[in-house]
Amino acid sequence: MVSPSTKLYGLIGYPLGHSISFYIHNAAFRALSIDALYINIPIEPESFSKAILGIKYLPIYGLNVTIPHKERIIDFLDEISVISKLIGAVNTVYLEENKWKGENTDFGGFLETLKELKLDKDLPCLILGAGGAARAVVYAVIEYGFKEIYLTNRTYGRAERIAEEVKKNKNIEIKIIPWQERHKVDEKLILINTTSIGLDSKSTPWNGNFKSIAFVYDIIYNPKETPLLSLAKENNVPFKNGLDMLIYQACLSWNKWFGFIGPFEIMKREAEKLL
Ligand code: ATR
Known about the structure:
It contains nine helices and twelve strands.
């Protein structure tokens, strides 16, 4: 529904062609008769500072932030949550008491799915990747209660940096495994992919055997079944893709914008139509 008093929300990032946020938020606005519209606001990196200052003066009530702006947005906000600070990234911006505030609902979204899956906290988990998405995942697995966490990344230094930060902030030891040696781990474990490998529907970040894998979680949601998840399926290992995480992060953004959690089923149904 659109009216003269429609409130604007939107997604900033670049490019935005791949995003399904526009569809899921607007479907939920329609279903709940909320007089709001969610728009794509592509902002090229070179224009970021100017554009974000402009947005602050427009009647926009909340934003999602995606690649490549999740880190840079922080400097333009009045306040960010503790977890956003730890992760170093914000994906939800909202206005509260005339202040622009930031939250990271990727963290909460992933955590929510871990709770639902009831994964065994006593098993070690091996996280593949140490990019932006990995940071939210690492803090979520800690919050969920996994005690033994392994991290592996093609660029060793990025994994090291995360481990150092986690040690400093949470006093938890993350064990780093060199990327080339990731398949040597032979304990029973939960495998979580946060790399972009598999987005092409062809490549897999795991070529090792699945005998010691108890569960495979790939945070990619498009394709719905990455080659990694197909391998898990072939090997009778339970698995999950990133769609529920995506939907939960959207629902949690609503909590900041409207004071209640967005309608998961409505958003998920809309997403499934598109994927
Ligand atoms: P995001 O914010 O989605 O996590 P990112 O910060 O660019 O994106 O991180 C992408 C992740 O996928 C990184 O862990 C990256 O490894 P590097 O840190 O070595 O770049 C990983 N990745 C992407 N392509 C890869 C490939 N072909 N082989 C191994 N790792 C890859």
